[in-house]
Amino acid sequence: MKKKKLRLLTILFAAIVVIQMITGHSDPLKAASSLNKDTLTMITSPDYPPYEFYDTKGGERQIIGFDIDIAKTLAQKLGFKLQIMESDFNGLIPALQANRADFVMAGMTPTPERQKNIDFSIIYYEAKDTIVALKGSNLKQPEDLSGKKVGVQLGTIQEQNAQKIAQKVAGIELKQLNKVPEVVQEIKSGRIDAAIVEDTVAKGFAQANPDLEFNTIPSSEASGSAIAFPKGSSLVEPFNKVLQQMKDLGTLEKLGTKWFSQNITTNTVSSTPTKSRLNLDFTRILPDIPFILQGIPLTLLFTLLSVSLGLIWGTILSLLKIIGIKPLTWVANAYTSVFRGTPLLLQLALVYYATPQLTGYKISALEAGVLTFTLNSGAYMSETIRGGIQAVDKGQSEAAMSMGVPYWLMMWDIIFPQGLKNILPALVNETIGLLKDSALVSTIGVVEILRSAQIVGANKYIYFEPLLFAGLIYYVLVMGLTFSASALERRLRQSE
């Protein structure tokens, strides 16, 4: 009888252990489901192959790479859909802090400085730093960088490591740039002597540019890539458990082999002998031209909305300045002073990152760009419109007033049309400026013409060809706008 009881207790205990193990493994799913959302938003900087980059073949706008595959696996195992946003690397942490995304994957290293502001998962990939330089430079060790100019990507672990090296090795001058392709191009142009870049990325650039070489920097500190979360995020624990499962099952190793063993030389290096150091070869971007061209409609849409809304807002401001009511005039002048006296890029960053925190509304990158450019261009246009209105002969307004025409009707039907004709060239110049300045919205993730060209350059490990092609597109658009404005101006002059 005792043996039966003992056997029964043993079976019961074993059942309890098994149930605890099963429920323990399902905790991540329960924790994730408790967020009351079915979609996770990931933000990344897709200019860092093979971690994350655009598949530009055939004009597709799909972000792929090592980090993307991991993120998709994590979302699938946790029962979520995945939405991917993009930004420059130095805008990823501000985006997390503004609650624009649930997590960041961009080959980011969990440094102590970053851990003060955001949380991290466990390391999912170990990486090493390298010194990238022209072949024959003999820059193999940190000590060899003494007296040299060294480039790094802004906001990365490589920048921090370079600063540590500069404290130990005298004479190092650091130059921070937004993107790795820009850093590499600085080496090739001779403005810097070397760059500190992660080994997997350095390998791709060395394969695509035979005049470059890289050497691994020995390091005693553990480094690698982890997933970043807002401080106190409930996603950290479930993500860690799934990442550990992926490590144990060899999934991470398989994904690493898939992406880091790819040889890109055949796709990016021209077989034509090099005759000049610049070595332009536009055949390398032919398959990616449809991808760049897809940025044109977005650029035109952005410009059209900004100009139209800016003209309306500028007209309102100009009327406030000339209406004669001192408080309104003071407000309009103060507004113009602020928006003309601060950088447009600063205004764009404030609108994009501060709006969700101040209002709770997650404004999209395009909306933030249009709003910022409307507010900014309105300030400039208000002065132009005010000058045009005041240039209209006073006899026009006096005659209208003597006939009893209401003030607002007089301004709308008589004064403003004549003033608009006078300021048309200035408005065209403002429109052209907005068209070209639209490239600034690329810093918050809008894939317009310039951003598309930069993406192609990052994927192909080249620099000049996609940018020159983007420049040609901008020139054609500006010339088309100029000719259209000239035709409109000639037609308006016919009525004189």
Give structural attributes:
496 residues; alpha/beta; 5-stranded mixed sheet; 19 helices; 58% helix
What amount of the residues lies in strands?
5-15%
Unreliable sequence segments: 16-32, 263-276
Q: Look at the structure and give the mean pLDDT.
A: 82
Helix content: 55-70%
The number of distinct helices, counting runs of at least 4 residues, comes to 19
Structural class: alpha/beta
Main sheet: strands, sense, barrel = 6 strands, mixed
Number of beta strands: 14
- From the N-terminal CA to the C-terminal CA, the straight-line distance is 116 Å
Rg on CA atoms, Å: 29 Å
Morphology call: elongated
Structural description of this entry:
By secondary structure, this protein is of the alpha/beta class. It has 19 helices and 14 strands. It has helices at about 1-35, 65-80, 90-95, 110-115, 155-170, 180-190, 200-210, 235-250, 250-260, 265-270, 290-295, 295-320, 325-340, 345-360, 365-390, 395-400, 405-435, 450-460, 465-495, and strands at about 40-45, 45-50, 50-55, 60-65, 80-85, 105-110, 120, 125, 130-135, 150-155, 175, 195-200, 210-215, 225-230. The strands form 3 sheets. Strands 1, 5, 6, 7, 8 and 14 form a 6-stranded mixed β-sheet that branches. It has a 5-stranded mixed β-sheet with strand order 11-10-12-9-13, sandwiched between helices. A hairpin with a 6-residue loop joins β3 (about 50-55) and β4 (about 60-65). α12 crosses α15. The radius of gyration is 29 Å and the shape is elongated.
